[in-house]
Amino acid sequence: MTSPFLLWPADPLERIYRDSIPPKDRVGKPIVISCARNEYEGWLFGITANIDLHNVTLTVTDLHSDNGLISKENIRISFVGFVHVIKNTPDTPASELDRLAPCDIPDPILDIDNTDIPAGETQPCWVLIYVPKNVQPGEYKGRIIVKAKEGEGMIDLIVRVYPIVLPDRKNLLVTNWFDVERIAKAHKVKLWSEEFWKIFKKWIKLMAEHGQNVYKVSIYTITAYVDKNGSFSFDFSLFDRFVELVLSVGKAERIEISHIAEPKGGWGHEFVFKEFPVVNKTSGKTVMLPGEKVFPYLLSALEKHLEEKGWLNITMIHIGDEPCESNIDSWRRISGLVREWAPRLMRIDAIETTGFEGYLEVWVPTLHHFNNWYEEFAKAMKEGHELWFYTCCFPHGLYPNRFLDYPLIKTRILHWINYAYNLKGYLHWGLNAWHGDPFGEPYEKLPPGDTHITYPGEKGPLSSLRFEAMRDGIEDYEYLKLLEEEIKKVKEELGGPALKLPFEIRAMELCKRVVPSIVDYTRDPEELMNTRELIVKEIISLRERPLALVLTIPPEYKVVPNGPIVILVKGVCEKGCKVTVNGKTVHVDENGYFSTWTYPDQQNRVIVIISKGSLKKVIVRTFNVRRK
User: Fold this and answer.
1) What is the value of pTM for the model shown?
2) Using alpha carbons only, what angle is made at residue 321 by residues 318 and 322, rounded to the nearest 5 degrees?
3) Signed CA dihedral, 600, 605, 610, 616: sign only
4) Among 473, 483, 545, residue whose Cα is nearest residue 509
5) DSSP letters of 179-209?
6) Which of 361, 390, 386, 342 is nearest to 219 (CA)?
7) Is 591 in contact with 607 (CB distance < 8 Å)?
8) Is the dihedral of CA 527, 529, 535, 537 positive or negative?
9) ω before 564 within 30° of 0 (cis)?
10) Are 200 and 180 in contact (CB under 8 A)?
11) 3-class SS shares of the chain: helix, strand, coil, % to 5
């Protein structure tokens, strides 16, 4: 008798469509997830209906191992919905798309309890697990149970927990701009009412769970008053409640205050101050006043208020969005006035040109501008400016971005780019800037999915496959930072010559396997996942004795032409160790330092073996050799 449905796991970062056919070698196979403690990790699986299925439901068991259990309270299982895309992202080769339009693309992670599945169709489902910090490393096993009116089935769930813990405080600064009015409207509550604050708290929690730690607050949450003498005063109570929420629930590392200027006449035109509403204390009426009359007093009072609250060192203010070569002079004028009125307030902006020295502390170019004008931005970093990047409706083509019709690896890879280019943050304008129906056809004037990466549910916000991929990328960044920090700890323990060499470049070597350049990143999810696994292995190996660190010149990520290839090898190990490099014994001095040169072996490898008594450590570097 034929089973009413088949269950099967997706490959990493693979979307499952309604017409997806279950690969024979995956039907009935378990879902296998590997993750650190204090990490979220998810996976897609498919239910392929052999007959019409009705009232399909999903449940999960606790996960057990010899070391304990992971409660099912830490596991969420959801059906995935679809968005109909009528046209693809422009100027993008078919090879860079996940599917050609028109098509239905799986994205929203739904909050429904059951669904029907027509015969011959596949329903994608999402399992998400959070591994608490106190869970012991090891392999945990459980089951996902799928029931329908026509029958039931199970798929095994295996979670392999690494012996590492991701930090609570993220190193990467991330902001997704959100629209509070759209949140209020979607949930049918009045903006700033108590009902709004309850639902808004859920949205902030979702953002924080997905790695967001920078939150944009409107400058119009500050109320301005003017008395009969023309003196201004300000009420910060709404502003304060907003900031206190994102600090407590949102785990905010930074606050960004919205723009005070705008281009008069549209993008690229002269920047002018925005108007600001002011309440007349005598009449009670609100009037709009030119910004240049209000902001000198408001920004001065704001800076003082932030200092009193202890928030000044984490707060940034936007001047005007996307200054470009045609209006940078007017933007500079306004930025200079902001510095005059609030000299200790950091300034941040998304920028469309260069030359912001002295006028901007946090520079946020688009990814393609950062790539094309790299020398200018690298110079700014060396001069001490903080550099982020942003994506929006641009870039597209070969570049990564988070559009609906792009493979999910293009979303995840964004934060490998953060690490590869020492970019401290990421900005996107569209957490929830949907037009019309959030689940309907994407806004036709922008690439599909650019407007929003979340959806409104019945009781709160909903995530998406793209938002999950983005979180995974942020966690990948933390893996790389964890490796870097572990190397620094070993350097400190070895001391002496270890402190003089940049062994922490190893994290960059592994990052560059995935992102050799901004457009030449891997398109292969398996390569990304294998590199992630290698990062974990190296973190674990660093702690094992004998302690040792190795540095090669050139670094592993650099493409080396054949001709011949000579690799310099430098390292530091525990005192009393013996070292061989590609089989050749190398002298180790009294401080544990060694150096030599070698040719790569037939597999383009340099193999360093460090031994001390019965202890042995093998360190391998594999080079990308160009022979043509």
Assistant:
1) 0.97
2) 130
3) negative
4) 483
5) -HHHHHHHTT--TTSHHHHHHHHHHHHHHHH
6) 342
7) no
8) negative
9) yes
10) yes
11) 25, 35, 40
Alpha-carbon span 189 to 431, nearest angstrom:
19
- Measured at the CA of 398, the angle between CA 396 and CA 400, to 5 degrees, comes to 65
Is beta strand 271-273 parallel, antiparallel or unpaired with respect to 138-148? unpaired
How many other C-beta atoms lie within 10 A of the C-beta of residue 4? 21
Beta strands 138-148 and 53-60 are antiparallel
d(CA 316, CA 215): 10
H or E, element range at 513: helix 505-514
Helix (H, G, I), strand (E, B) or coil at 290: coil
Structure tokens at 30: 């378990």
pLDDT tens track for 22-57: 999 999 999 999 999 999 999 999 999 999 999 999
Distance CA 184, CA 408 (A): 29
DSSP sequence for 542-567:
HHSSSPEEEEEES-TTS-EE-SS--E
Kindly give the parts of the chain with pLDDT less than 70: 1
Phi, psi (deg, nearest 5) at residue 133: -65, -30
Query: Is the C-alpha dihedral spanning 375, 379, 381, 382 positive or negative?
Result: positive
Under a CB-based contact definition with an 8 Å cutoff, are residues 566 and 587 in contact? no
Using CA atoms, how far apart are residues 145 and 126, in angstroms rounded to an integer?
A: 13
Secondary structure element (H or E) that encloses residue 476, with its range: helix 465-494
Are 18 and 121 in contact by the 8 Å Cβ rule? The answer is yes
Per residue in 203-249, pLDDT tens? Answer: 999 999 999 999 999 999 999 999 999 999 999 999 999 999 999 99
Q: Residue 604 has which token pair? A: 């383009």
β-bridge pairing 346-351 and 315-318: parallel
Considering only CA atoms, which of 347, 394, 332 is closest in space to residue 368?
394
Rounded distance between C-alpha atoms, residue 122 and residue 103, angstroms = 15
Phi, psi of 334 (to 5 degrees): -70, -40
Tokens of 250: 């949102």
Among the listed residues 417, 437, 320, the one whose alpha carbon sits nearest the alpha carbon of residue 374: 417
Cβ neighbour number for residue 533 with a 10 Å cutoff: 13
